[in-house]
Amino acid sequence: xxxxxxxxxxxxxxxxxxxxxxxxxxxxxxxxxxxxxxxxxxxxxxxxxxxxxxxxxxxxxxxxxxxxxxxxxxxxxxxxxxxxxxxxxxxxxxxxxxxxxxxxxxxxxxxxxxxxxxxxxxxxxxxxxxxxxxxxxxxxxxxxxxxxxxxxxxxxxxxxxxxxxxxxxxxxxxxxxxxxxxxxxxxxxxxxxxxxxxxxxxxxxxxxxxxxxxxxxxxxxxxxxxxxxxxxxxxxxxxxxxxxxxxxxxxxxxxxxxxxxxxxxxxxxxxxxxxxxxxxxxx
Length: 283
Known about the structure:
This protein is an alpha/beta fold. The protein has helices spanning 65-73, 112-122, 127-140, 156-169, 186-203, 214-220, 254-271, and strands spanning 6-8, 21-34, 37-50, 54-58, 80-85, 88-89, 97-100, 174-178, 206-210, 223-227, 232-239. Strands 1, 2, 3, 4, 5, 6, 7, 8, 9, 10 and 11 form an 11-stranded mixed β-sheet that branches. It is globular.
């Protein structure tokens, strides 16, 4: 990942930078019109996310994190700027981008197997390939034995794992995740973070992950992008130089706590920016 204000901490580097870009964003801007008034949500964001990187987006509430992600997904039209995935400009939703939301979007009347198969059926994959893919990804998320269950028969964490399997099954080039664990209790959330790290390491997807949870961002990410208050720009990009795979015990390390505190300080600083006098302290 590249940007002018990348900050690294004084710890060993454990990751070789990939060379090719998965997602390029240049001077992204979004303005909403409400009751005849223009509201600038995103002022100008530039990012270059490399193949296979896990990048988290954090920022003050209402700063446009989800708006940003939905623009990359093609669900919201940008006002100006360029967004491209592997060299193809984003204009609308497409199979090269898999989107996962805070609440599972499973069809309650379809069994687990059929929910995962749904996207493949829509794209008219051969039945043999659908079966192979569904079985592979349900086993990847550890839910093959629940293939005949309805979503209502699963816990919240299990439903999110089914949602993840459904997204991965059609093999998107990038994975966009909008606080997918936000509705889970803390213990289930931690379990899902461990599972996501494992699945990401096996699938090699490029990921943009929106979260309010600083520790979640540090634990999962190669980079954490900190946004300013609305209208948002990139305040800082923090490279997370922690070894992989990451055991949950790494949360107790001085390096982890240092990263967490640094991001907390940036967000706390942003919450205290005066609306009068502009945002001269934004980087």
